[in-house]
Write a structure and sequence with these properties.
The protein is an alpha/beta fold. The strands form two sheets. Strands 9, 10, 11, 12, 13, 14, 15, 16 and 17 form a nine-stranded mixed β-sheet that branches. It has three domains: about 120 residues, Phosphohistidine domain (Glucose Oxidase, domain 1, 3-Layer(bba) Sandwich); about 120 residues, PtsI, HPr-binding domain (Enzyme I, Chain A, domain 2); about 290 residues, Phosphoenolpyruvate-binding domains (TIM Barrel, Alpha-Beta Barrel), CATH 3.20.20.60. β9 and β10 form a beta hairpin. About 0% of the residues have low confidence. It is about 50% helix and about 15% strand. The chain is globular, with a radius of gyration of 26 Å. The chain binds phosphoenolpyruvate (PEP) and magnesium ion. The site of magnesium ion has 5 residues, from α16. The site of phosphoenolpyruvate (PEP) has 11 residues, from β11 and α16.
Protein backbone atom coordinates (compact mmCIF):
# COMPACT_ATOMS: atom_id res chain seq x y z
CA UNK A 1 0.00 0.00 0.00
CA UNK A 2 1.24 3.47 -0.85
CA UNK A 3 -0.38 6.77 0.04
CA UNK A 4 0.12 9.98 -1.95
CA UNK A 5 -1.19 13.47 -1.42
CA UNK A 6 -2.55 15.72 -4.12
CA UNK A 7 -5.10 18.49 -4.50
CA UNK A 8 -8.72 17.58 -3.76
CA UNK A 9 -10.85 18.52 -6.70
CA UNK A 10 -14.21 16.93 -6.64
CA UNK A 11 -16.00 15.68 -3.54
CA UNK A 12 -16.44 11.94 -3.72
CA UNK A 13 -14.44 8.78 -3.35
CA UNK A 14 -13.70 6.33 -6.16
CA UNK A 15 -12.44 2.81 -5.62
CA UNK A 16 -11.48 0.87 -8.72
CA UNK A 17 -8.87 -0.68 -10.97
CA UNK A 18 -6.35 1.68 -12.58
CA UNK A 19 -6.53 2.65 -16.21
CA UNK A 20 -3.44 4.56 -17.28
CA UNK A 21 -3.93 7.04 -20.03
CA UNK A 22 -1.21 9.25 -21.24
CA UNK A 23 -1.69 12.41 -23.24
CA UNK A 24 -1.40 10.62 -26.55
CA UNK A 25 -3.97 8.06 -25.48
CA UNK A 26 -1.87 4.95 -25.05
CA UNK A 27 -0.96 3.32 -21.80
CA UNK A 28 2.07 1.40 -20.69
CA UNK A 29 1.76 -0.30 -17.37
CA UNK A 30 4.73 -1.53 -15.42
CA UNK A 31 5.29 -5.06 -16.63
CA UNK A 32 8.12 -7.47 -15.99
CA UNK A 33 9.63 -10.43 -17.80
CA UNK A 34 11.24 -13.62 -16.51
CA UNK A 35 14.87 -12.98 -15.68
CA UNK A 36 15.82 -15.80 -18.07
CA UNK A 37 14.31 -13.75 -20.93
CA UNK A 38 16.39 -10.62 -20.39
CA UNK A 39 18.72 -11.06 -23.34
CA UNK A 40 15.79 -11.97 -25.62
CA UNK A 41 14.05 -8.73 -24.51
CA UNK A 42 17.21 -6.71 -25.17
CA UNK A 43 17.43 -8.15 -28.69
CA UNK A 44 13.75 -7.38 -29.22
CA UNK A 45 14.43 -3.75 -28.28
CA UNK A 46 17.51 -3.56 -30.53
CA UNK A 47 15.48 -4.84 -33.47
CA UNK A 48 12.74 -2.29 -32.71
CA UNK A 49 15.27 0.57 -32.59
CA UNK A 50 16.58 -0.46 -36.02
CA UNK A 51 13.03 -0.73 -37.41
CA UNK A 52 11.98 2.63 -35.92
CA UNK A 53 15.07 4.27 -37.34
CA UNK A 54 14.22 2.89 -40.80
CA UNK A 55 10.68 4.26 -40.50
CA UNK A 56 11.91 7.69 -39.42
CA UNK A 57 14.32 7.73 -42.33
CA UNK A 58 11.45 6.98 -44.67
CA UNK A 59 9.37 9.79 -43.13
CA UNK A 60 12.31 12.15 -43.48
CA UNK A 61 12.77 11.39 -47.19
CA UNK A 62 9.06 11.55 -47.99
CA UNK A 63 8.41 14.79 -46.14
CA UNK A 64 11.52 16.47 -47.54
CA UNK A 65 10.22 15.76 -51.04
CA UNK A 66 6.57 16.61 -50.41
CA UNK A 67 6.78 19.45 -47.89
CA UNK A 68 10.34 20.66 -47.65
CA UNK A 69 13.61 20.26 -45.87
CA UNK A 70 12.45 22.06 -42.73
CA UNK A 71 9.97 19.26 -42.04
CA UNK A 72 12.40 16.53 -43.07
CA UNK A 73 14.78 17.95 -40.48
CA UNK A 74 12.27 17.21 -37.71
CA UNK A 75 12.44 13.49 -38.47
CA UNK A 76 16.19 13.69 -38.68
CA UNK A 77 16.23 15.11 -35.14
CA UNK A 78 13.88 12.33 -33.98
CA UNK A 79 16.21 9.78 -35.50
CA UNK A 80 19.19 11.29 -33.72
CA UNK A 81 17.34 11.09 -30.42
CA UNK A 82 16.34 7.50 -31.10
CA UNK A 83 19.93 6.52 -31.78
CA UNK A 84 21.37 8.30 -28.74
CA UNK A 85 23.59 5.72 -26.96
CA UNK A 86 22.92 7.15 -23.51
CA UNK A 87 19.20 6.48 -23.94
CA UNK A 88 19.98 2.93 -25.07
CA UNK A 89 22.09 2.39 -21.96
CA UNK A 90 19.20 3.49 -19.73
CA UNK A 91 16.72 1.21 -21.48
CA UNK A 92 19.01 -1.82 -21.47
CA UNK A 93 19.85 -1.26 -17.81
CA UNK A 94 16.18 -1.28 -16.82
CA UNK A 95 15.68 -4.57 -18.66
CA UNK A 96 18.84 -6.10 -17.29
CA UNK A 97 18.66 -4.95 -13.67
CA UNK A 98 14.91 -4.80 -13.10
CA UNK A 99 13.57 -7.30 -15.66
CA UNK A 100 11.21 -4.67 -17.07
CA UNK A 101 9.58 -5.21 -20.44
CA UNK A 102 11.08 -3.22 -23.32
CA UNK A 103 7.83 -1.23 -23.57
CA UNK A 104 7.93 -0.16 -19.95
CA UNK A 105 11.66 0.62 -20.08
CA UNK A 106 11.15 2.92 -23.08
CA UNK A 107 8.09 4.58 -21.69
CA UNK A 108 9.42 5.29 -18.21
CA UNK A 109 12.70 6.79 -19.45
CA UNK A 110 11.13 8.92 -22.18
CA UNK A 111 8.30 10.08 -19.93
CA UNK A 112 10.88 11.39 -17.52
CA UNK A 113 12.62 13.34 -20.28
CA UNK A 114 9.36 14.70 -21.67
CA UNK A 115 8.32 15.87 -18.22
CA UNK A 116 11.65 17.58 -17.69
CA UNK A 117 11.22 19.51 -20.95
CA UNK A 118 7.62 20.44 -20.08
CA UNK A 119 8.68 21.70 -16.69
CA UNK A 120 11.07 24.20 -18.23
CA UNK A 121 7.88 25.79 -19.46
CA UNK A 122 8.97 27.69 -22.55
CA UNK A 123 7.08 27.00 -25.76
CA UNK A 124 10.28 25.71 -27.38
CA UNK A 125 10.91 23.22 -24.61
CA UNK A 126 7.31 22.01 -24.72
CA UNK A 127 7.92 21.28 -28.40
CA UNK A 128 10.91 19.19 -27.39
CA UNK A 129 8.64 17.26 -25.03
CA UNK A 130 6.31 16.51 -27.94
CA UNK A 131 9.30 15.31 -29.95
CA UNK A 132 10.22 12.89 -27.18
CA UNK A 133 6.65 11.52 -27.14
CA UNK A 134 6.74 11.11 -30.92
CA UNK A 135 9.92 9.07 -30.70
CA UNK A 136 8.33 6.96 -27.97
CA UNK A 137 5.27 6.30 -30.08
CA UNK A 138 7.34 5.30 -33.14
CA UNK A 139 9.42 2.95 -31.06
CA UNK A 140 6.44 1.36 -29.34
CA UNK A 141 4.80 0.82 -32.69
CA UNK A 142 7.99 -0.81 -33.96
CA UNK A 143 7.82 -3.15 -31.00
CA UNK A 144 4.48 -4.31 -32.31
CA UNK A 145 2.46 -2.50 -29.64
CA UNK A 146 -1.03 -1.37 -30.38
CA UNK A 147 -1.36 2.11 -28.95
CA UNK A 148 -5.00 2.46 -27.99
CA UNK A 149 -6.68 5.76 -28.53
CA UNK A 150 -9.41 5.85 -25.94
CA UNK A 151 -10.14 5.12 -22.34
CA UNK A 152 -11.59 1.75 -23.15
CA UNK A 153 -12.38 -0.46 -20.26
CA UNK A 154 -15.20 -2.78 -19.38
CA UNK A 155 -15.03 -2.44 -15.63
CA UNK A 156 -15.20 0.47 -13.19
CA UNK A 157 -11.84 2.18 -13.61
CA UNK A 158 -9.97 5.14 -12.25
CA UNK A 159 -8.13 6.99 -15.00
CA UNK A 160 -4.55 7.95 -14.17
CA UNK A 161 -2.74 10.36 -16.39
CA UNK A 162 0.04 12.91 -16.33
CA UNK A 163 -2.55 15.56 -17.13
CA UNK A 164 -5.98 15.81 -18.69
CA UNK A 165 -7.36 18.71 -20.69
CA UNK A 166 -10.87 19.97 -19.89
CA UNK A 167 -12.22 18.40 -23.08
CA UNK A 168 -10.50 15.06 -22.44
CA UNK A 169 -12.12 15.10 -19.01
CA UNK A 170 -15.52 15.93 -20.46
CA UNK A 171 -15.19 13.04 -22.90
CA UNK A 172 -14.30 10.35 -20.37
CA UNK A 173 -16.59 7.37 -20.79
CA UNK A 174 -18.86 7.71 -17.75
CA UNK A 175 -20.08 4.13 -18.10
CA UNK A 176 -16.74 2.87 -16.83
CA UNK A 177 -14.67 5.79 -15.59
CA UNK A 178 -15.51 6.39 -11.93
CA UNK A 179 -12.77 8.88 -11.06
CA UNK A 180 -9.39 10.20 -12.08
CA UNK A 181 -6.08 11.30 -10.74
CA UNK A 182 -3.37 13.32 -12.46
CA UNK A 183 0.23 14.11 -11.75
CA UNK A 184 -0.17 17.73 -12.87
CA UNK A 185 -2.86 20.38 -12.51
CA UNK A 186 -4.35 22.79 -10.01
CA UNK A 187 -7.57 22.74 -7.99
CA UNK A 188 -9.23 25.59 -9.87
CA UNK A 189 -8.24 24.54 -13.38
CA UNK A 190 -11.05 24.01 -15.85
CA UNK A 191 -10.29 20.28 -15.74
CA UNK A 192 -11.12 20.36 -12.04
CA UNK A 193 -14.26 22.36 -12.76
CA UNK A 194 -15.43 19.83 -15.33
CA UNK A 195 -14.79 17.03 -12.82
CA UNK A 196 -17.04 18.77 -10.32
CA UNK A 197 -19.68 19.32 -13.00
CA UNK A 198 -19.61 15.62 -13.83
CA UNK A 199 -19.51 14.77 -10.12
CA UNK A 200 -16.48 12.63 -10.81
CA UNK A 201 -14.21 12.05 -7.78
CA UNK A 202 -10.77 13.40 -8.64
CA UNK A 203 -7.39 14.39 -7.27
CA UNK A 204 -4.87 16.42 -9.29
CA UNK A 205 -1.32 17.70 -8.82
CA UNK A 206 -0.04 14.52 -7.16
CA UNK A 207 3.41 14.82 -8.77
CA UNK A 208 5.18 11.96 -10.58
CA UNK A 209 3.64 8.62 -9.63
CA UNK A 210 2.62 6.86 -12.83
CA UNK A 211 5.90 4.94 -12.99
CA UNK A 212 4.94 3.22 -9.71
CA UNK A 213 1.66 1.83 -10.99
CA UNK A 214 1.43 -1.85 -11.69
CA UNK A 215 -1.04 -3.35 -14.12
CA UNK A 216 -4.42 -4.28 -12.61
CA UNK A 217 -3.68 -2.43 -9.35
CA UNK A 218 -6.48 -1.15 -7.17
CA UNK A 219 -6.63 2.48 -6.20
CA UNK A 220 -8.66 4.77 -3.95
CA UNK A 221 -9.07 8.39 -5.01
CA UNK A 222 -10.38 10.53 -2.18
CA UNK A 223 -11.61 13.73 -3.79
CA UNK A 224 -12.54 15.23 -0.41
CA UNK A 225 -9.07 15.29 1.05
CA UNK A 226 -6.78 14.86 -1.96
CA UNK A 227 -5.61 11.42 -0.84
CA UNK A 228 -4.63 8.71 -3.28
CA UNK A 229 -4.03 5.18 -2.01
CA UNK A 230 -2.39 2.63 -4.24
CA UNK A 231 -2.96 -1.06 -3.58
CA UNK A 232 -5.05 -0.43 -0.43
CA UNK A 233 -5.24 -3.22 2.12
CA UNK A 234 -8.61 -4.65 3.18
CA UNK A 235 -8.80 -2.54 6.29
CA UNK A 236 -8.43 0.69 4.34
CA UNK A 237 -10.83 -0.52 1.67
CA UNK A 238 -13.47 -1.24 4.32
CA UNK A 239 -12.94 2.15 5.94
CA UNK A 240 -13.51 3.94 2.63
CA UNK A 241 -16.54 1.80 1.74
CA UNK A 242 -18.10 2.82 5.05
CA UNK A 243 -17.38 6.45 4.31
CA UNK A 244 -19.05 6.17 0.92
CA UNK A 245 -22.14 4.70 2.60
CA UNK A 246 -22.19 7.45 5.24
CA UNK A 247 -21.79 10.06 2.56
CA UNK A 248 -24.75 8.83 0.60
CA UNK A 249 -27.01 8.86 3.66
CA UNK A 250 -25.81 12.42 4.35
CA UNK A 251 -26.68 13.37 0.76
CA UNK A 252 -30.13 11.87 1.27
CA UNK A 253 -30.63 13.97 4.37
CA UNK A 254 -29.59 17.09 2.51
CA UNK A 255 -31.99 16.31 -0.32
CA UNK A 256 -34.81 16.95 2.16
CA UNK A 257 -34.07 20.68 2.07
CA UNK A 258 -34.04 20.79 -1.73
CA UNK A 259 -37.25 22.78 -2.05
CA UNK A 260 -36.69 24.98 0.98
CA UNK A 261 -35.18 28.45 0.55
CA UNK A 262 -31.56 29.25 1.35
CA UNK A 263 -32.50 31.60 4.12
CA UNK A 264 -30.55 32.47 7.24
CA UNK A 265 -32.22 31.94 10.60
CA UNK A 266 -33.03 35.65 10.76
CA UNK A 267 -34.72 35.62 7.38
CA UNK A 268 -32.05 36.84 4.93
CA UNK A 269 -32.64 35.21 1.58
CA UNK A 270 -29.72 34.03 -0.54
CA UNK A 271 -30.27 32.88 -4.15
CA UNK A 272 -28.46 29.69 -5.03
CA UNK A 273 -27.82 29.29 -8.73
CA UNK A 274 -25.87 26.63 -10.60
CA UNK A 275 -22.75 26.65 -12.76
CA UNK A 276 -23.04 24.36 -15.76
CA UNK A 277 -20.86 23.41 -18.71
CA UNK A 278 -23.33 21.25 -20.68
CA UNK A 279 -27.11 21.39 -21.27
CA UNK A 280 -27.56 17.92 -19.81
CA UNK A 281 -26.55 19.26 -16.40
CA UNK A 282 -29.99 20.87 -16.12
CA UNK A 283 -31.23 17.63 -14.62
CA UNK A 284 -28.64 17.91 -11.82
CA UNK A 285 -29.67 21.57 -11.30
CA UNK A 286 -33.25 20.47 -10.70
CA UNK A 287 -32.26 17.62 -8.43
CA UNK A 288 -30.26 20.02 -6.29
CA UNK A 289 -32.92 22.74 -6.19
CA UNK A 290 -30.99 25.39 -8.17
CA UNK A 291 -32.99 28.60 -8.61
CA UNK A 292 -31.48 29.25 -12.00
CA UNK A 293 -28.17 29.02 -13.85
CA UNK A 294 -25.71 31.66 -12.68
CA UNK A 295 -22.98 30.63 -15.11
CA UNK A 296 -23.34 28.61 -18.28
CA UNK A 297 -19.81 28.09 -19.65
CA UNK A 298 -20.78 27.96 -23.31
CA UNK A 299 -17.25 27.36 -24.59
CA UNK A 300 -17.58 23.66 -23.77
CA UNK A 301 -19.64 23.24 -26.93
CA UNK A 302 -16.48 24.16 -28.84
CA UNK A 303 -14.05 22.01 -26.94
CA UNK A 304 -13.43 18.59 -28.34
CA UNK A 305 -15.15 19.50 -31.59
CA UNK A 306 -12.96 19.67 -34.69
CA UNK A 307 -15.29 22.10 -36.42
CA UNK A 308 -16.85 25.26 -35.15
CA UNK A 309 -20.40 24.65 -33.89
CA UNK A 310 -22.88 26.26 -36.27
CA UNK A 311 -25.36 28.94 -35.23
CA UNK A 312 -28.08 26.29 -35.34
CA UNK A 313 -26.17 23.88 -33.08
CA UNK A 314 -25.54 26.66 -30.59
CA UNK A 315 -29.14 27.83 -30.75
CA UNK A 316 -30.33 24.29 -29.99
CA UNK A 317 -28.11 24.05 -26.90
CA UNK A 318 -29.17 27.47 -25.56
CA UNK A 319 -32.82 26.83 -26.41
CA UNK A 320 -32.67 23.59 -24.47
CA UNK A 321 -31.21 25.22 -21.38
CA UNK A 322 -33.67 28.15 -21.57
CA UNK A 323 -36.75 25.99 -21.95
CA UNK A 324 -35.76 23.25 -19.53
CA UNK A 325 -35.17 25.83 -16.80
CA UNK A 326 -38.84 26.85 -17.22
CA UNK A 327 -38.49 30.59 -16.93
CA UNK A 328 -35.80 30.59 -14.23
CA UNK A 329 -32.87 32.92 -15.00
CA UNK A 330 -29.98 31.56 -17.06
CA UNK A 331 -26.77 33.58 -17.30
CA UNK A 332 -25.14 32.58 -20.51
CA UNK A 333 -21.49 33.52 -20.57
CA UNK A 334 -20.09 34.16 -24.03
CA UNK A 335 -17.06 32.15 -25.14
CA UNK A 336 -14.23 31.96 -22.67
CA UNK A 337 -11.87 30.08 -24.95
CA UNK A 338 -8.08 30.16 -24.88
CA UNK A 339 -5.48 29.32 -22.20
CA UNK A 340 -6.40 25.85 -20.95
CA UNK A 341 -9.59 25.78 -23.05
CA UNK A 342 -8.42 25.63 -26.62
CA UNK A 343 -10.94 24.89 -29.35
CA UNK A 344 -9.43 22.88 -32.15
CA UNK A 345 -11.39 24.86 -34.72
CA UNK A 346 -9.61 28.12 -33.84
CA UNK A 347 -6.45 26.85 -32.12
CA UNK A 348 -4.05 29.76 -32.01
CA UNK A 349 -0.28 29.53 -32.23
CA UNK A 350 1.26 28.43 -28.95
CA UNK A 351 1.63 31.40 -26.63
CA UNK A 352 4.32 31.99 -24.04
CA UNK A 353 1.80 32.95 -21.31
CA UNK A 354 -1.60 31.83 -22.55
CA UNK A 355 -3.51 32.95 -19.45
CA UNK A 356 -2.23 36.45 -20.18
CA UNK A 357 -2.71 36.05 -23.89
CA UNK A 358 -5.45 35.77 -26.46
CA UNK A 359 -8.07 34.45 -24.12
CA UNK A 360 -11.74 34.91 -23.42
CA UNK A 361 -13.36 38.19 -24.57
CA UNK A 362 -10.08 39.16 -26.27
CA UNK A 363 -10.32 36.11 -28.47
CA UNK A 364 -14.01 36.71 -29.24
CA UNK A 365 -13.30 40.30 -30.23
CA UNK A 366 -10.38 39.19 -32.38
CA UNK A 367 -12.71 36.73 -34.18
CA UNK A 368 -15.84 38.84 -34.73
CA UNK A 369 -17.45 36.30 -37.07
CA UNK A 370 -17.22 33.62 -34.40
CA UNK A 371 -18.54 36.03 -31.77
CA UNK A 372 -21.43 37.25 -33.91
CA UNK A 373 -22.50 33.69 -34.62
CA UNK A 374 -22.71 33.03 -30.92
CA UNK A 375 -24.54 36.29 -30.19
CA UNK A 376 -27.12 35.52 -32.90
CA UNK A 377 -27.76 32.11 -31.40
CA UNK A 378 -28.12 33.59 -27.91
CA UNK A 379 -30.51 36.36 -28.93
CA UNK A 380 -32.70 33.91 -30.85
CA UNK A 381 -32.80 31.52 -27.90
CA UNK A 382 -33.60 34.39 -25.52
CA UNK A 383 -37.17 34.32 -26.88
CA UNK A 384 -37.72 31.08 -25.02
CA UNK A 385 -36.74 31.84 -21.45
CA UNK A 386 -35.06 34.27 -19.09
CA UNK A 387 -31.63 34.35 -20.77
CA UNK A 388 -29.02 36.91 -19.74
CA UNK A 389 -25.71 37.59 -21.46
CA UNK A 390 -22.43 37.88 -19.62
CA UNK A 391 -19.02 38.81 -21.06
CA UNK A 392 -15.99 37.10 -19.51
CA UNK A 393 -12.65 38.54 -18.45
CA UNK A 394 -13.46 42.17 -19.15
CA UNK A 395 -10.30 44.15 -18.44
CA UNK A 396 -10.97 47.52 -20.04
CA UNK A 397 -13.99 49.67 -20.68
CA UNK A 398 -13.13 49.60 -24.36
CA UNK A 399 -13.61 45.83 -24.44
CA UNK A 400 -16.98 46.07 -22.76
CA UNK A 401 -18.14 48.78 -25.15
CA UNK A 402 -16.93 46.91 -28.22
CA UNK A 403 -18.66 43.72 -27.09
CA UNK A 404 -21.89 45.63 -26.45
CA UNK A 405 -21.63 47.34 -29.83
CA UNK A 406 -21.30 43.98 -31.59
CA UNK A 407 -24.30 42.73 -29.65
CA UNK A 408 -26.36 45.74 -30.80
CA UNK A 409 -25.30 45.20 -34.41
CA UNK A 410 -26.27 41.54 -34.24
CA UNK A 411 -29.65 42.49 -32.73
CA UNK A 412 -30.20 45.01 -35.56
CA UNK A 413 -29.30 42.41 -38.20
CA UNK A 414 -31.75 39.93 -36.72
CA UNK A 415 -34.47 42.57 -36.55
CA UNK A 416 -33.87 43.45 -40.20
CA UNK A 417 -34.18 39.80 -41.11
CA UNK A 418 -37.53 39.80 -39.34
CA UNK A 419 -36.39 37.40 -36.62
CA UNK A 420 -38.22 38.03 -33.35
CA UNK A 421 -35.83 38.94 -30.53
CA UNK A 422 -36.55 40.22 -27.05
CA UNK A 423 -35.69 43.87 -26.54
CA UNK A 424 -34.45 43.77 -22.95
CA UNK A 425 -31.94 40.96 -22.54
CA UNK A 426 -29.86 41.92 -19.47
CA UNK A 427 -26.15 42.28 -20.18
CA UNK A 428 -23.50 41.78 -17.51
CA UNK A 429 -19.80 41.27 -17.11
CA UNK A 430 -17.53 39.08 -15.08
CA UNK A 431 -15.23 40.70 -12.58
CA UNK A 432 -12.17 38.48 -12.61
CA UNK A 433 -9.26 40.82 -13.25
CA UNK A 434 -8.01 43.39 -10.69
CA UNK A 435 -8.36 46.20 -13.27
CA UNK A 436 -12.10 45.50 -13.44
CA UNK A 437 -12.37 45.90 -9.66
CA UNK A 438 -10.34 49.09 -9.64
CA UNK A 439 -12.46 50.61 -12.41
CA UNK A 440 -15.77 49.12 -11.32
CA UNK A 441 -17.32 52.54 -10.64
CA UNK A 442 -17.17 53.10 -14.39
CA UNK A 443 -18.04 49.61 -15.59
CA UNK A 444 -21.05 49.41 -13.32
CA UNK A 445 -22.77 52.25 -15.14
CA UNK A 446 -22.76 50.27 -18.37
CA UNK A 447 -23.98 46.83 -17.22
CA UNK A 448 -27.13 45.34 -15.73
CA UNK A 449 -25.31 42.93 -13.41
CA UNK A 450 -21.87 41.70 -12.46
CA UNK A 451 -20.59 38.32 -11.40
CA UNK A 452 -17.33 37.90 -9.55
CA UNK A 453 -15.20 35.13 -11.01
CA UNK A 454 -12.99 34.32 -8.07
CA UNK A 455 -11.12 31.52 -9.88
CA UNK A 456 -9.45 34.00 -12.19
CA UNK A 457 -9.50 36.89 -9.74
CA UNK A 458 -7.29 34.84 -7.40
CA UNK A 459 -4.99 33.86 -10.26
CA UNK A 460 -4.58 37.40 -11.58
CA UNK A 461 -4.31 39.07 -8.18
CA UNK A 462 -1.73 36.73 -6.72
CA UNK A 463 0.05 35.99 -10.04
CA UNK A 464 -0.48 32.27 -9.49
CA UNK A 465 -1.34 30.04 -12.44
CA UNK A 466 -4.53 28.21 -11.43
CA UNK A 467 -3.46 25.07 -13.34
CA UNK A 468 0.07 24.79 -11.99
CA UNK A 469 0.62 22.22 -9.25
CA UNK A 470 3.99 23.76 -8.34
CA UNK A 471 2.35 26.92 -7.01
CA UNK A 472 -0.95 25.40 -5.90
CA UNK A 473 -0.17 26.22 -2.27
CA UNK A 474 -0.04 29.92 -3.17
CA UNK A 475 -3.47 29.87 -4.80
CA UNK A 476 -5.69 31.06 -1.95
CA UNK A 477 -9.17 32.55 -2.07
CA UNK A 478 -8.73 33.59 1.54
CA UNK A 479 -5.71 35.77 0.80
CA UNK A 480 -6.40 39.25 2.27
CA UNK A 481 -5.72 40.91 -1.09
CA UNK A 482 -8.36 38.76 -2.78
CA UNK A 483 -10.88 39.35 0.01
CA UNK A 484 -10.38 43.11 -0.24
CA UNK A 485 -11.02 43.06 -3.98
CA UNK A 486 -14.17 41.00 -3.54
CA UNK A 487 -15.44 43.32 -0.80
CA UNK A 488 -14.69 46.38 -2.87
CA UNK A 489 -16.63 44.97 -5.84
CA UNK A 490 -19.62 43.96 -3.72
CA UNK A 491 -19.75 47.40 -2.08
CA UNK A 492 -19.65 49.26 -5.39
CA UNK A 493 -22.40 47.06 -6.86
CA UNK A 494 -24.62 47.28 -3.77
CA UNK A 495 -24.22 51.06 -3.51
CA UNK A 496 -25.25 51.39 -7.14
CA UNK A 497 -28.10 48.90 -6.79
CA UNK A 498 -26.62 46.62 -9.44
CA UNK A 499 -27.08 42.88 -8.98
CA UNK A 500 -23.90 41.12 -7.92
CA UNK A 501 -23.21 37.41 -7.66
CA UNK A 502 -20.15 35.26 -7.11
CA UNK A 503 -19.78 32.39 -9.57
CA UNK A 504 -16.18 31.31 -8.87
CA UNK A 505 -15.54 28.09 -7.00
CA UNK A 506 -15.38 29.98 -3.67
CA UNK A 507 -19.18 29.91 -3.69
CA UNK A 508 -19.16 26.14 -3.49
CA UNK A 509 -17.23 25.91 -0.21
CA UNK A 510 -19.64 26.44 2.70
CA UNK A 511 -17.21 28.47 4.85
CA UNK A 512 -16.38 30.81 1.95
CA UNK A 513 -20.05 31.03 1.03
CA UNK A 514 -20.88 32.35 4.52
CA UNK A 515 -17.99 34.78 4.29
CA UNK A 516 -19.36 36.09 0.99
CA UNK A 517 -22.85 36.46 2.47
CA UNK A 518 -21.26 38.42 5.31
CA UNK A 519 -19.64 40.73 2.76
CA UNK A 520 -23.04 41.52 1.25
CA UNK A 521 -23.39 38.93 -1.51
CA UNK A 522 -26.94 37.61 -1.89
CA UNK A 523 -26.51 35.45 -4.99
CA UNK A 524 -24.10 32.54 -5.17
CA UNK A 525 -23.55 30.30 -8.16
CA UNK A 526 -21.81 26.96 -7.74
CA UNK A 527 -21.69 23.49 -9.30
CA UNK A 528 -25.06 21.75 -8.73
CA UNK A 529 -23.52 19.09 -6.47
CA UNK A 530 -22.29 21.76 -4.05
CA UNK A 531 -25.64 23.51 -3.59
CA UNK A 532 -27.17 21.30 -0.85
CA UNK A 533 -24.17 21.80 1.44
CA UNK A 534 -24.12 25.55 0.88
CA UNK A 535 -27.85 25.73 1.53
CA UNK A 536 -27.50 23.75 4.73
CA UNK A 537 -24.81 26.15 5.93
CA UNK A 538 -26.82 29.28 5.09
CA UNK A 539 -29.95 27.92 6.79
CA UNK A 540 -28.11 27.26 10.03
CA UNK A 541 -26.53 30.63 10.72
CA UNK A 542 -27.68 34.22 11.15
CA UNK A 543 -26.69 37.19 9.05
CA UNK A 544 -24.82 38.51 12.06
CA UNK A 545 -22.73 35.31 12.19
CA UNK A 546 -21.78 35.87 8.57
CA UNK A 547 -21.07 39.57 9.01
CA UNK A 548 -18.82 38.90 11.99
CA UNK A 549 -17.02 36.24 9.98
CA UNK A 550 -16.43 38.71 7.16
CA UNK A 551 -15.43 41.73 9.24
CA UNK A 552 -12.96 39.72 11.28
CA UNK A 553 -11.52 37.95 8.21
CA UNK A 554 -10.95 41.31 6.53
CA UNK A 555 -8.81 42.50 9.43
CA UNK A 556 -6.03 39.93 9.01
CA UNK A 557 -2.91 40.60 7.01
CA UNK A 558 -1.91 37.07 5.98
CA UNK A 559 -3.72 34.23 4.22
CA UNK A 560 -2.68 31.81 6.94
CA UNK A 561 -4.37 33.86 9.67
CA UNK A 562 -7.57 34.15 7.65
CA UNK A 563 -7.57 30.41 6.97
CA UNK A 564 -7.04 29.51 10.63
CA UNK A 565 -9.76 31.87 11.76
CA UNK A 566 -12.24 30.71 9.10
CA UNK A 567 -11.71 27.06 9.93
CA UNK A 568 -12.12 27.46 13.66
CA UNK A 569 -15.11 29.81 13.49
CA UNK A 570 -16.81 27.59 10.91
CA UNK A 571 -16.29 24.57 13.15
CA UNK A 572 -18.02 26.46 15.98
CA UNK A 573 -20.93 27.50 13.79
CA UNK A 574 -21.48 24.21 11.97
CA UNK A 575 -19.63 21.42 13.74
CA UNK A 576 -21.63 18.71 11.95
CA UNK A 577 -20.28 19.88 8.57
CA UNK A 578 -16.69 19.66 9.71
CA UNK A 579 -17.08 16.24 11.24
CA UNK A 580 -18.83 14.91 8.14
CA UNK A 581 -17.01 12.69 5.66
C1 LIG B 1 -13.89 32.35 -12.62
O1 LIG B 1 -12.85 32.72 -13.16
O2 LIG B 1 -14.10 32.42 -11.40
C2 LIG B 1 -14.98 31.77 -13.44
C3 LIG B 1 -16.14 31.48 -12.92
O3 LIG B 1 -14.67 31.51 -14.74
P1 LIG B 1 -13.84 30.21 -15.19
O4 LIG B 1 -13.62 29.33 -14.00
O5 LIG B 1 -14.64 29.53 -16.25
O6 LIG B 1 -12.58 30.81 -15.72
MG1 LIG C 1 -12.78 32.88 -15.31
Amino acid sequence: MLELQGIAVSPGVAIGKVLILDREGYRITRSQIDSADRSKETQRLQAAIAEASKRLDQHRQNSTITIGEHVGAIFSAHQQMLLDPSLHNEWFRLIDEHCYSAEFAISSVLTRYAQAFRRIGSAMMRERASDVRDVERTLLEALGGQPTSSTTSNQPSVVLSHDLTPSETANLDRKFVIGFCTEAGGGSSHTAIVARGLELPAVVGVGPFLHRIEKDSWIIVDGFHGRVILQPNTEVLDEFRQRIAARSSNAERLSEIRDLPAETQDGIRVSLLANIEFPNEIEACKQRGAEGVGLYRTEFLYLGSKTEPTEEQQYEAYFRVATEMHGLPVVLRTLDLGADKVAQSIAADPEMNPFLGLRSIRLSLRHPKLFRTQLRAILRAANHGDLRIMFPMITTLHELRTARMLLRQVADDLAEEGAPIPSNVPVGMMVEVPSAVLMLEHFIQEVDFISIGTNDLIQYTLAVDRCNEFVADLYAGHDPAVLKLIKQSVDVANQRGVEVSVCGEMSSTPSYALLLVGMGVRTLSAPPAALPQVKHAVRNVTLEDCQQLASRALEFSTAREVEGFLQSRFAELLPEMVLGV
